[in-house]
Records
---
Amino acid sequence: MRILAVSDVPAKKFYDYYTPGALDGYELILACGDLRRTYLEFLVTMAHCPVIYVRGNHDDEFLTAPPEGCTCAEDQIIVHNGVRILGLGGSYRYRPGECMYTERQMARRIRRLTWQLHRHKGFDILLTHAPIRGLNDFDTLSHRGFMCFGPLLDKYKPRYHVHGHIHRTYGHDIPQIDHYGDTTVVNAFEYCEIEF
């Protein structure tokens, strides 16, 4: 399965300079947050595949006006063509906002997924906005990852963890692809192609 992962800023290739057919061949689009509603609606209209998304720390408006035609994966496992996608959006809390969480709040969200994780026998892709703590995140609260993602990846060993939030323009040494144990970690800033 050919997957397009997007996050944080619209990819000019698929929006400003879009040419007919540019999205052909993708079987799934994963959106990791902080993307405008109009961009996600454009993608789902032009692509011949679903757009599954989680919310970023700037996506509070999606709570009342979600992008039309797209599927929200927050706090659930979505199965597409046999691929199990677990969604946990939002960032580390650094100011008031609906899509930001403390470490304790994110850990509670994960605990509430116990039955779904058991029923689906785990998951294949962890779709988040924030990264895991200690892997290409920063010490500042606004760009800190979540420690509780570590035990989740350790236990279920998904093939991919796809996240956004850490803009690769923040520094020349921020990788797009990294690894955490058996899991390939993808920073989807702007866009990244994944083969599943």
Note: The mean pLDDT is 96.
---
Amino acid sequence: MEDPVLAGLWEAVRQSPDNVPLRESLAAMLLERHLYRDVERLVREGLERDPDRPGLKVALAEAFYGLGRFGEALAVLDELLEGDAAPARAWLVAARCHHEREDPRRAGTCYRRALALDADATDPRLEHLARPRATPPRRGDAPTGTGRPGDALRRPDDDATFGADDPDDDPLLEFAQGDAPGGRFEPYVERSRITFADVGGMQSLKDEIGLKIIQPLQHPELYAAYGKKAGGGILLYGPPGCGKTHLARATAGEVEASFLSVSISDVLAMYVGESERNLRDIFGSARAHVPSVLFFDEVDALAASRRDMRQSAGRQVINQFLAELDGVDSDNEGLLVLAATNAPWHLDAAFRRPGRFDRILFVPPPDEEARAEILRVLLRDKPAGDADVGAVARKTKDFSGADLRAVVETAIETKLRTAFKSGVPEPLSTKDLLAAAKAVKPSTREWFKTARNHALYANEGGLYDDILAWLGIDR
């Protein structure tokens, strides 16, 4: 039977959606009843109206904790804990999350901070962390154990947290210095300032991304009518320097979503299990900022075929990546995953399954119109006079955006040599740019030599038909 008190509060929230204190009261009652998904929905709507409300952030973190999504809970609390206004409840939730993630040092720090703010903010499971243990002996100190077997061999982290009286070892300093809770990697969340209007050409790619990513966010009611959710994954592949990263950033700007760019160095770590934990935290941060675009550059380094791996560590990273894409323990609605690679043939086939990277889009070198637009952008702040970018675009077939940048830089260097002799700087001309275009060789041709073999002899299910079409090869 439905609780009449809860039903009344839900109705009151519907009648007064901007009443944030009312939302907090309802969230507290829902948390008492362990209705965590209801809390998440209720609080997310409230944060859209008041994104800096501490009570709503703590309630959302508590809901994530109840759902076992500890990384997401810490991501929500991150900014709050760095300030001076974090309530005791926020520190208590952070302590519980660190405890579940087997990080007793940070769990103890957060729990003691919670107790310092409110003596009633207790948790029986964390009571052993309530007092800072004695600072462990530093290297070279004589052991000071109690005589129990193993005292001299016990590592400091086995059963002790660093003493808060020692400023060099106080974990709170790490918070003050901006480290993310848990000491894990937290990707930089930005708001992209570019949109599709800043991307020359690529109209078919824009249309495909629009259907998969942009339209579901702009017209959720239409997609809901067909039972489709906003979110999903798109893999961009093609020669290097052709604007895959630029297109991903423009996608985020088009829908005014958070943009998180991740490289291989942000994920891979030297210790076993740390890479998988980094992936969990990265996806957790992206889910905490939905709608968001999570972009993986050179994804083939993280998602290489498991058939080529001899060590199990790499396989575990791939398995974790697949689990995050599937949203096994979390809801990926509103999370848009874009990835770029120059070598799609090295990717594990499991990533191409529907629901993961179910759209694989070829990003070719820019066409003539796009090359002209790229040249205009590159020359925007240069003394280019009345240079005919159209004429240069016609002479730079197969050039990537990076190649076109090299053309402009080469022309500038030639002009500088002349200016050093004459002492008079002169603007770039069409002739200068055409001469530079002859000196620069398009880098994409080498890539197409390799891609051609894969498209002809390893084209499973027509995956590389776009490459064959670009090369003018009929099959």
Note: The two ends are 64 Å apart (CA to CA).
---
Amino acid sequence: MILCIESTSNICSVCLVGSDGIINIKESFKGASHASELTQFIQQVCPKHLYSQLQAISISSGPGSFTGLRIGTAIAKGLAYTLNIPLIDVGTLNALTFKLLQEYKVKEDTILAPMIDARRQEVYTCLFDTNLNSISPVQAQILHANMFSQLEKEVWVFGNGAAKAKQIIKSSKVKFIENIAFSAANLSSLAYQKLNNNVFKDVAYFEPNYLKEYLPKKSKAFF
């Protein structure tokens, strides 16, 4: 079993998964509740008598809310260290994209652009192909009307930044999907892939992807 933690947005989500799927999940949509609810959710989803059956702790590693990432990472690292089990990171944009590919039939040549709402007209984003291969780096980017204009293929925009992007981006080749939500359940398949391949993080030195370097200055447009 793997305990998955999602704390990068206003959604607080904890999920216990096994090889056959979700065993238990607990989520809150109150916003800014990670400090008070995350440890409670962990206790409810995975009581202490199940700790011996855990094979890893998986954390949604950002980008996203600085406070949410800090709280979730601290708890995940503490559990992994205490239980002496591996820590697995799953990029938040990767998890959102994997969720989209599970729920929608997407043409093979489509470009996927997950977006996480950031400040004002800014989003955290990157580009993937339909095999979940990275096309562009994760970045903080200011939305603009001509975004993706140089791309010839259809682009799907999704995540909690999609609604804001829809108001700004003006292109007939961009499709907006607004119902792909953050959830610890989104991490499960990617976390199992890393578990099977022994891809783990060093508990002592792991830091989530805060994207700090982009926040104090104007973002560079990559597309």
Note: Residues 66-83 form the longest helix (18 residues).
---
Amino acid sequence: MYGENGHLLRAELSSLLRQHRIQLRIGGPGTHTVPVTTTEEERTQIGEQVRRYRQSALVWCLQATIAVAPRAESRLSPTATNPFRLPPAQHGGLASLHKALDHAVRVSTARLPGMAELTSQHDLPLVEHWRQVARAAALGEHDFMAGLGHGRLDDAQLHTMIGDVAATVRALVVLDQRYATIPGWEGLHRADRLGWAALACALDASLDPPDYSIDMRGWRPKTKVIPGAGKPGLLGVLQAEHNLTVRMQAFPSAMNLRLVVDSQRLLSGGLATRVQKIEPALHGAWRDREQTYNDLQRELRDIGGTVGVGGLAVAEGANAWNRLKALPPDAQLDPRIVHSFTNLFAKLDERIADVVEEGMQRKAYSVRVKVPGTVTNIGQAITRVQERFVPPAQADHSAIVGLVRDRLRPPPEPPTASPGAARSRAELHTAIVHQPERRAGGKDGVGI
């Protein structure tokens, strides 16, 4: 997720920016009280490894400018007067930063770190911080195709990302100057241009308040089924409901969808009865959910279709209900487990609503209607009414679609920022301008 990877990147850069006397930290000379523990060749190898880690951070910054470039405009750009003409060539701080980053990446002789370097812990704390920077940058590359860039962010979120990239570049420029005394160190080419372009982007992005809800976007690991036998007590019910939510990622047939809906009707009512005294608010909400699924089950009686699977989801729904029935009436309910059902119910409700709408849209589900006409009596005691299944476009299916949209689908939650989003960025900005304390006697203790 962008928030986790960005937080790790900023935290490690902040730690590096507060470290001075780089030669001493890699075992080189610098003071008569600390012995030299590494040779010049070893320090050269350390510098090369740090540059490989830095290259990963530079590539992440470059990819970020590419991801936001199609829609991001400078706050100072004039408004286009003719909407039918193509916009002029991109200009401003973002374009300059992109060109400077592209040049710095291409000119650098450092290659990207391999998997072994990214996953192997280093003995030196300074190099370990750089490894974490590269690791966060490598993981952050997955975010651009999973919720960031390419028209998926609004204007405020775009400029928040631009501000994050600008701060990262500024930190790398400061560190590049501080590491200049490492044997064989290769500095950033035209670092002054890179630094000024990053500063221009940072100032441009700060003209409006940031939107830290971007931290909730990005790549997330795939949710998996919890294997093994059922857990004891209410935890086993939660396990089956979790597995049902995962299994519902596969599109179910109409019959299996009805069975899943019926399991949720029973489960909601059973849980509401058990939490009536300890959680009155959940009791009312789950009674409403029970009624919603009762109405949805009634509407699904006229829905047919053999396209899809869903047998595993039906089995998990049956497991959840059977395990709940098997609980003793006086069983103790852990409040943490009880409240965990709320999040699972919201995810499953949204998925079922998507399934119903998708099935109607792509004609995987059909609607049963009565066919008017003359029925020939063939000697049966009861004459059956002729029925047939027709595509949704030929029948009135507004009732079921309205039910899933208005009552089943959870209301959209306003985007929220991750905890510590503003603090993480403020700490990096503070570290960029950090200066070491002066020693007693007026001598500066910076050292490089």
Note: Residues 40-68 form the longest helix (29 residues).
